[in-house]
Write a structure and sequence with these properties.
The chain is mainly α. It has one domain: Up-down Bundle (Na+/H+ antiporter like fold), CATH 1.20.1530. The protein has 18 helices and two strands. The N and C termini lie far apart (about 85 Å).
């Protein structure tokens, strides 16, 4: 009897243990499958994110989304909070002993974005310009003339249109440079959407024109939008620039030292009254393009590739969100047809295409420059229109030209209207333009390399 009970007990325990073991294995298998499925989904999401980040058009897409978001917020019940956060909330960095401030910078969030983060954008602009001059589309007079000549037309004609419309309002003329700018991220983003319909030479031409345009904007800011310079502070800048020059000549390739000196230069330039973003541009010019001890190394290009995602996905979207918000409530026809709004809109939409295309026509028809390979006149006209997308740089210059909230609203309306019209018409012209059939030359890898640099995932 006891043996039977013992046997049944052991059998029950064994069955229970077996069932527990079975259920445990099933649970473990389910957990492993769930974990693998979750890992696969996470990896798929990561791969999708990486593919999106590699697209040249992605920076323009993010910029467009944040600009639309700013417009939505500015026309919602959250506008007061949006405006208060940007204009009234102060952010302070510095050191203090409790009573006497030793060194302190205190600015509203909007100015930290426009003066601080945008210095990183101008740093990237400097790196891009240096790369193009050293080894790219501006590396020789023959290569540089056509985009440089076109860029001049693209700055002079829009500025002239703005001046003509506002010539009877002298206090408004300080905004003459607003329509002279081109947003390289937006313009290249729209061109990237055309994929194979935009030949390599067209992409290179647009990049070169936009970069020269950026250089012109930097010079304009330095020469025409700098007031009340405090030379007793500015005299600290030359020693910092000289130090970076010596580092460059001594083949110091570590970006850390240039960044530290660049930050010091930013503080000096900011306190001197010169616009602080110029410090970013100047710092970039001293970063070496080559390492004499390692021919395979490209310090400036490596820094450019490292900085570009931060600018494309953080700096410019924040700038767009902070500066593109236009409240439409209360806007009437008199606001829409305000001379500043009309001058900026027509300067970007008409002035850019007329200036760039006419200067391209003159240079090519006169025989000074050849027609870019694989392009047509219709495509050159389409690119000329795309250069009317002023957005980032136009908004930035507008913030320097005018101080009042009313004038800032006029600038934003004009920039948005001119940029959107240029983007839509430019895309349609290039989309409908017949694509010339050109047989590629064997062994010509320079253009392919350029395409990979400008549009790395366009194929």
């Amino acid at each position: 009897m006891n043996d039977d009970l013992k046997h049944k007990t052991e059998e029950t325990i064994g069955n229970t243990a077996g069932e527990i073991s079975k259920r445990t294995h099933q649970a473990i298998d389910a957990a492993v499958k769930f974990e693998l499925k979750a890992e696969q989904k996470a990896q798929d999401f990561l791969n999708m994110t990486r593919r999106f980040a590699k697209l040249t058009s992605s920076g323009g897409i993010v910029l467009m989304v944040t600009a639309v978001l700013a417009l939505i917020v500015a026309n919602s019940p959250f506008y007061d909070a949006y405006h208060h956060f940007l204009e009234r909330v102060m952010f302070t960095i510095g050191m203090s002993d409790g009573q006497d401030v030793q060194m302190q910078l205190q600015k509203p969030i909007l100015l930290w974005i426009n003066d601080g983060l945008m210095a990183i954008f101008f740093f990237l602009v400097g790196l891009e310009i240096k790369r193009e001059i050293v080894e790219g589309a501006l590396s020789s007079k023959a290569k540089a003339f056509l985009p440089a000549f076109a860029a001049v037309g693209g700055m002079v004609v829009p500025a002239a249109i703005f001046w003509f419309i506002n010539k009877d309002n002298p206090e408004m003329l300080s905004g003459w440079a607003i329509p002279a700018a081109t947003d390289i991220a937006f313009a290249l983003g729209v061109l990237a959407l055309l994929k194979s319909r935009a030949p390599v030479a067209l992409k290179v031409l647009l990049t070169a024109i936009a970069i020269i345009d950026d250089l012109g904007a930097v010079l304009i800011i330095a020469l025409f939008y700098t007031h009340d310079v405090h030379f007793q502070i500015l005299y600290l800048a030359p020693p910092l620039l000289l130090t970076m020059f010596i580092m460059n000549r001594r083949n110091v390739t570590s970006s850390f030292f240039y960044v530290v000196l660049g930050m010091l230069l930013w503080v000096v330039v900011l306190k001197s009254g010169v616009h602080a973003t110029l410090a970013g541009f100047l710092t970039a010019l001293f970063i070496p393009t080559r390492n004499v001890h390692d021919p395979e190394a490209h310090p400036a290009k490596e820094v450019e590739h490292a900085v570009h995602p931060w600018v494309a996905f953080l700096v410019l979207p924040l700038f767009a969100f902070a500066n593109a918000g236009v409240p439409f409530q209360g806007i009437g026809l008199e606001d829409v047809f305000d001379p500043v709004v009309v001058g900026i809109t027509l300067g970007l939409f008409l002035g850019k295409q007329l200036g760039i295309f006419s200067f391209l026509w003159i240079a090519i028809k006169s025989g000074i420059s050849p027609m870019p390979e694989g392009t047509s006149w219709v495509q050159l006209y389409g690119v000329s229109i795309l250069c009317g997308i002023g957005f980032t740089m136009s908004l930035f210059i507008g913030g320097l030209a005018y101080n009042s909230i009313e004038m800032q609203a006029s600038v934003r309306m004009g920039v948005l209207a001119g940029s959107v019209a240029s983007a839509l018409l430019g895309y349609l012209v290039l989309r409908l333009a017949p694509v010339p059939k050109v047989k590629p030359k064997l062994g010509d890898e320079s253009q392919i390399q350029k395409e990979d640099e400008v549009f790395p995932n366009d194929k």
